[in-house]
Amino acid sequence: MKNSIVCLLLMLVMSSCNMSLYLNKKGVIDVPKKESYQVTYKTSLRSSIVAKISYTDESDRIQKVDNVTGDWEKTVTLKAGKHVKIKIVATGDVKVPTDFKVLVDGKIISEHTLNGKKSKFSFSFDLP
User: Which domains are delineated in the chain?
Assistant: First the structure.
């Protein structure tokens, strides 16, 4: 009974947060091996949603972009064997869907829609 009450209280607290999470470390992705790849990061933010984005750039550094609104897309060319990361934290006044997508050479390797006042999408993978 005590566990049921604790579980119920935890569910109540979590539901009032209106936060959606997607965290994934994929490892080596299944694409043909070659010298370099076109990696495209995309997000579609509804009205009143603002995001902070960090992503791996061509120099193998993490770049940060603040105050992103609307549709955002960035394509970078990365060499084989690189570890790639993207993290997007989107916040807004109301609970609305936010779309996230990562492509490698035009092939979707991650696509998710999160729904909350605050959404966190974090995805990492290794190029072959």
Answer: 19-126 (2.60.40)
